[in-house]
User: Fold this.
Amino acid sequence: MPTIIHNQVQQPQPFDLVGDPVRISGIGQGFEAVLNWRVHDGHDERTGFFNVGGGTGEHGQFQVAAAIGAAAFQLDRLFVEVFEESAADGSEVKKVMVPVIYGPRIVANYVGFRLHRVAAGDTLSRIARDNYGDPGLFGLIQRANPHIITDPDQIFVGQELKVPIGV
Assistant:
């Protein structure tokens, strides 16, 4: 029996470091060709909708620039959701949820990130000094990589860290 694909979020990937707007893309199918998106932290949210496919069961590609700048997010970690509203009762169905890290909560005027592969002798303080000019800002790198760095005194050779950059 073939696999049935409902909705897939291909971007962002789990724990990606994102900015504003959050770029959401993938493949989906919705009732009357409509899918919804939501970006939230559990305290505030931004929502919208978009068209995908032909509305009678066809899947189509989608790409959305979800503007979230006015949100009063309290956490670095956000959730990106894509879902269909049920025609029967308005409930959310075929929901896909992706956890992401919101760069503008970490550094002012966030523009993106640098990738740093940990080498022998590296410390978060040294990486912060090299990127920010201040070793005391190592916490910014830890906040951008919570799924990798659970203890700031323990980073390991070969880990790839995202270093958030602002202007």
Summary: Strands lie at 8-11, 17-18, 22-28, 34-40, 45-51, 60-66, 77-85, 92-102, 110-117, 160-166.
